[in-house]
Sequence to fold (406 residues):
Amino acid sequence: MARNKLTTTQIKAATKTGKIGDGDGLYLNVSKGGTKSWVFIYVRGSKRREMGLGAFDSGTAPVSLALARVKADEVRSILARGGDPLSEIGARRERAAFVTFAEVVRSFLATKDGSRRNEKHEAQWKMTLGEAYCSSLLKKSVGAITTHDVVTVLEPHWREKHETASRLRGRLEKVLGYATVRGLRSGENPARWKGHLEHLLPKPAAEQRIKRGHHAALPFSEIASFMTKLRAKSGLSSLALEFLILTASRTSEALGARWEEIDSDRAVWTVPGVRMKAGREHRVPLPARVLEILRARDKRVGLVFPGAIEGRPLSATSLVKALGAAGGTDATLHGFRSTFRDWVSEETSFPSELAEAALAHLVGDEVERAYRRGDALEKRRKLMEAWAHYGQKDSGHSVIRVLTAA
Fold:
């Protein structure tokens, strides 16, 4: 039976009293008073049953379209094995009331054993989600955690330790999303940023945006003049640095780029998961200027930016030298990702989710990601072309240099 017939826009516009089907048992019920709620209708034995799944846009725990579909899938799975959704889910909710945040954190971290990059990274997760920052949450039922609880944890550190607090918020969002998928809580994620905590917690000051942690970044207003100086320099390191900036990639990703990862015909660079921070494959749409850089290399095997030692890429040090030679002595390589992110936020109308996807950051909670299809490649292509154009505005069209030395 067809599923996923509705869109959020259709739901918000619906005013006619009655039920609107999303498919395979899931319905939006519009009452005479205009309130909207989710119901799942099924037949068990010879009886028709109707199970409420929560209000769409009201109450203390509103249920989005994505979450309603997750709940519907849960009901379908119970029915498929001959169970009774009403009794099973009711009993599960009663048990969930006694499951603490600390227990869920332990369970969540156990599912991720071996998937984090190193022991230090794993220790940071345990520390920030433990007594050091989350002492007020540890003994609380995970299903009872509210936005107020999350803000209470984050607010004391939001200004003075913004980078740490921001990472903690993301970790809380993941843990609470995991709890939702396990049926231990319902409603929207109280730790989500977009459209939620962004209205309750102040944005970092301008100097914090320009300098995140120890990664000093060039202000985006200076990027065009910097790129003009960079293009005036010869050498492979300068081209590699330009490639890194225009793709908004991490240093290791750019320097480790291989020709077999690049599809010049489709203008796509596919970075395999083993070389990505999050361990997930990442596709990068390549602007015209990046394709020029690649054509100038005129190679089709091995590393795009090889170093002096055979089989090894250029060193990060060589890019730092190119950065300094072009006048960027107060910036860092990683800081250009911050420059890109701030440019998107302050100079364009592209949605923040698109910028985060371009940076290969996970966007939204687990429920949202479960229903997001694809990686918005073509939308990101427009974004990256705009970024490349912004970086060329001082120099007109670009001219490729002929390399005299690698």
